[in-house]
Amino acid sequence: MSIWKKSARLAAPLVLVASGLVLGLAVGGGQTAIGTEPQQTSNAAMASDSRLADMVPQAAFVDVADNVGPAVVFIQATRPREGAAAQGQDSRFQDFFQDFFGRDPEQAPEGAEPEEDFNFQDQAQSQGSGVLISADGYILTNAHVIAELDIRDREMDLATAVQVTLQDDRLYDAEIVGADLGTDIALLKINGRRLPFAELGDSDALRVGEWVMAIGAPFGLQNTVSAGIVSAIGRANLAGMITPYQDFVQTDAAINPGNSGGPLVNLRGEIIGINTAIATGGGFNPSFNGVGFAVPVNMVRRVADHLRDHGRVLRGYLGVSVQGLSRDDREAFDLGRRDGAIISTVNDGGPADQAGIQEADIVIGVDGEALENRQDFLQRIAEHGPGDEVELEVVRFGDADGSNQLTITVTLSERPPEAEVLADQYTDNRQPARSEPEGSDPEDFTSDSALSLGIRVTELTDEIRRRLEIDEAIDGVVVTDVAEASPAAQAGIQPGDVIRRVRTNIESVRDFDEQFAEFGPGDAVPLRVYSLRGQASTFLALRIPR
């Protein structure tokens, strides 16, 4: 189960929250009036606290809460549930209606007049936060507060009704200007004049350790303020987060369900991020554990501009899927200190394919600037628009030892809607596992040369290809066995996977043995592996134990 939970969810019953608060206050109130001697200790503590208070910029926190608080809003979104979802209720409730009333809960009593004034249509609701960024009513929030991904139809379902409540209890109906699943940012608009709003800051200027404040409506408790520091910047590749563009600001300011879409602000009162997710450690209580994430405001600003101008984000499209490079990968591919991204697949007929980009190319630079990592590559491409030309610095390994570096110019097209991309990724990652190779395993077709990595391989025969339903375009050798706790097992390789490449592409066990023989203990071996479960090829660097 993924540990990353979106921080916007239907608020927990407020009766329970209120009861907890009342109980805490009652217990606290009783303790402060007990005895007389502890009063002296309390006075000493107050003197110490006074000196500490002089060191903490309390006035700054108060000023930020006073000035930014009125711009933070509470959002309630409503959408009809799909018929299948509405009917997928717990059968115990269906049985209760049938047994107690003697009829189906959706069936009207015989002879009853149809209801015209009230509709009992089943609806889904969500709550979250947002922040006004202009006096005329533009509001930033999270996409997951007012929209959700429909995997089956490969589209984004928007809320049918959105209401916004200001700090002074003014209530507005909001229009959804646009939502972007790629960054989890949405833009709303309410009709108002001279509304309070907060200024956008500069997230590139953030430093780890800087004081920040989160403002929102955790558990539906509106106008809640919490404080902490910037714990880290540039957080990316968070497991379980479907948003492809990740460059999060991490904070230990308390963020809970309902804080989603609210601002993370610095002590100058500037928005430096939009709170979007928390790390919960799993379980049934997704609440604050000191690790929260916000989309940096510089990314938010670009997205909001596109949503306001076009209703969607226009991104350049390269037509590839990429992987990051680990330290072992960089050693295996002789990259030294250079970093970047490996091209794992190239879409037929796409911009990259037309420009001559190949699978296994390693992109180390874009437009003359070196790449920091895979996420940096995705961001650089996303910042370009359709029709833009980009220059890619590519390291390509030839058939002989060594490599050459190329500069390839690609003209980008327009990226498909994020809902389509995300739905395809979700589906691809959940392909059913296939059976292990059976039969057709003669000894002269097998190899034990890679036992140091914990795998045995065999020829990819026509029989194995048929049994495992491996496409004719996939060449290589088939993994027949994986040793427990071996480097291969730790990398996720399983029987039935196809090793397509070591240093270069391979077509037989002989090719595999010849290339594997070049590596010794302590070396990182570059492999390209086709996974039957994901129906995709990935690059791995497995280090041979010493």
Layout of strands and helices, then pairs:
Elements: E1 4-6, H1 14-31, H2 38-55, H3 58-68, E2 72-80, H4 83-87, H5 91-101, E3 123-132, E4 138-142, H6 143-146, E5 147-150, E6 155-158, E7 161-165, E8 171-173, E9 175-180, E10 185-189, E11 199-200, E12 211-216, E13 224-235, E14 248-251, E15 263-266, E16 270-279, E17 292-296, H7 297-310, E18 316-317, E19 320-324, H8 327-332, E20 341-346, H9 351-355, E21 362-366, E22 369-370, H10 374-382, E23 389-397, E24 403-411, E25 413-414, H11 418-428, E26 446-447, E27 455-459, H12 462-468, E28 477-482, H13 487-490, E29 498-501, H14 509-516, E30 524-531, E31 536-543
Parallel strand pairs: 11-16
Antiparallel strand pairs: 1-16, 2-3, 2-7, 3-4, 4-10, 5-6, 7-8, 9-10, 12-13, 12-15, 13-14, 14-17, 15-16, 16-17, 18-25, 19-20, 20-21, 21-22, 21-23, 23-24, 26-27, 27-28, 28-29, 29-30, 30-31
Primary descriptors:
7-stranded antiparallel sheet; Pdz3 Domain; elongated; 6-stranded antiparallel β-barrel; disordered N terminus; 31 strands; 3 domains; Thrombin, subunit H; 546 residues; alpha+beta
